[in-house]
Amino acid sequence: xxxxxxxxxxxxxxxxxxxxxxxxxxxxxxxxxxxxxxxxxxxxxxxxxxxxxxxxxxxxxxxxxxxxxxxxxxxxxxxxxxxxxxxxxxxxxxxxxxxxxxxxxxxxxxxxxxxxxxxxxxxxxxxxxxxxxxxxxxxxxxxx
Length: 144
Prior knowledge:
Blueprint: H1 2-22, E1 25-31, H2 36-53, E2 57-63, H3 69-73, E3 81-86, E4 91-94, H4 100-106, H5 109-116
Parallel strand pairs: 1-2
Antiparallel strand pairs: 1-3, 3-4
């Protein structure tokens, strides 16, 4: 009996992990009805996710006019606000989300790259050292 229970728990855990691997980024977008900024934010985050995350995200759009209880729980004071719930740490983005660079800096896309393809080896470029110059004024400079 205990063995079956253990096997069921292990099976459920595997299913959860597989689901997490499929949807490793979880976003909540808080909007205010069908306003222009809200519509732009929805369009921009969907475009971003389709371009950079493909099928590895889950996006939930929450209208704070219809579900105001979520604003208090997640400390949302302005809309549109995007909250990256998973993977940790939690990150918040405010505005219409048109600045892709700001989102890229705040979301560790490299985590996704490590899961979907083989990790690239980190090769450092070595710079040639410049010849050191003497700081002694009495020392003669080499003639050219």
